């Protein structure tokens, strides 16, 4: 069945086993046994574990003691919407999502709706002890040895690869100590031929004198494409130079033009007030955008993007004699259209530092030290802007920097969607858990301008509306659906509490089923265990 999530994942694992035979990593007889075991595994967890144990990593030379996920038994994990943390702006734009819970369960559930549909995945996995949450606590007494890190990442990366579209890409932040090992792991999961490059990010410029030998200023971002169908954004192999009719004779070459004033729907200043601001026209006067109906308009790009166009002399002005006004256009250079100037430099030297992200968090929460080592949104935007990113997933969301970056990019009149996953790990700084103390409140604040109201359920949301952030920033807007991971036994038979009652298909992009038969069929196809048990009962 085309939409059978469980079968698709099992077949993907088997395809990986077959690839290992082709690469001379596994003997055919061993592969046949593994395939049989995977097909007969009682659960998807067991199938993943069998495939993982069959990995030898001869190609990369990577060896580690594999630790398996805690088996779920006869428990089905599913999405349950948290209505109190969710909010909507009433628009028809796609809702962003925050999933609170184990990202292994979150990824399995996301495959039901998003298999092969994700454009970009960014992750910043934990590097040190006491930062792995329930996985390490349950399996390894909260010790994050390298074996534990790789064991934790391998099945999650495998699930992530199933989410990526053929034109998608994944980016993984990692430190010096673990870089070589994680790269070997990602080579195995995504294929060495799909390694796109290694980004070196300068995370700090001062301090660090406590380091033993070198002042460590950098971290890495490993990048992989899903397949050779991946393309840099705006890479146009069919571009013809004759299509670019303008040339300022400034050495930059020929260019075409795109109107900077917004046209079509949502073209008025009231539709996006923050995108209605003046720039200087060639006569030195303040120039405001005008909508097609001559009412006050708005720009197609945001203030930061506009300033960069001004700084780069990338605005083409033409005088409309009939309207008696200037009209600004963005220059689109032929060399850019050919993909020669859009590729990202591998060293992010002066983009932003960890301190930049810390200051941003401080301005949002009105207090310091709410989260350790957040990633700057500027670094993430610099990665995302070079590729198609309509749907972005981060399953180690932390402080929600990825979501913040996407919201900021959406100010340039785009409708990108993010899906974040974060376990509600309790820390000294976050006594109610990272997801509840940091991830969700940050998104609520920057999207709506206010925080969650104090209530019996969430008594720790206090003083939110006194934050100074809203004095200097306009909320991004948008809607957020917050899900939690809930569980149900496959043996549950009480009416109203069975898997077919509690699993809500609308949380997976489905319309409400009109018959119980349809609902049962869909649940059995997409959630492990239930199907096997129903067959046994027959």
Describe the structure.
The chain is of the alpha/beta class. It has helices at residues 5-22, 28-40, 44-53, 103-114, 134-140, 146-163, 176-190, 303-311, 334-337, 354-365, 377-384, 401-409, 434-448, 469-472, 499-502, 516-526, 530-537, and strands spanning 75-81, 96-100, 118-123, 164-174, 195-202, 218-225, 246-247, 254-259, 279-280, 286-287, 315-320, 325-333, 347-348, 391-394, 417-422, 480-489. The protein has a ten-stranded mixed sheet with strand order 1-16-2-15-14-3-4-6-5-13, with helices on both faces. The chain has a four-stranded antiparallel sheet with strand order 7-8-12-11. A two-stranded antiparallel sheet has the order 9-10. The model is unreliable at 129-144 and 529-538 (pLDDT under 50).
Topology, please?
Blueprint: H1 5-22, H2 28-40, H3 44-53, E1 75-81, E2 96-100, H4 103-114, E3 118-123, H5 134-140, H6 146-163, E4 164-174, H7 176-190, E5 195-202, E6 218-225, E7 246-247, E8 254-259, E9 279-280, E10 286-287, H8 303-311, E11 315-320, E12 325-333, H9 334-337, E13 347-348, H10 354-365, H11 377-384, E14 391-394, H12 401-409, E15 417-422, H13 434-448, H14 469-472, E16 480-489, H15 499-502, H16 516-526, H17 530-537
Parallel strand pairs: 2-15, 2-16, 3-4, 3-14, 5-13, 14-15
Antiparallel strand pairs: 1-16, 4-6, 5-6, 7-8, 8-12, 9-10, 11-12
Helix pairs in contact: 1-2, 1-3, 2-3, 4-6, 6-7, 11-12
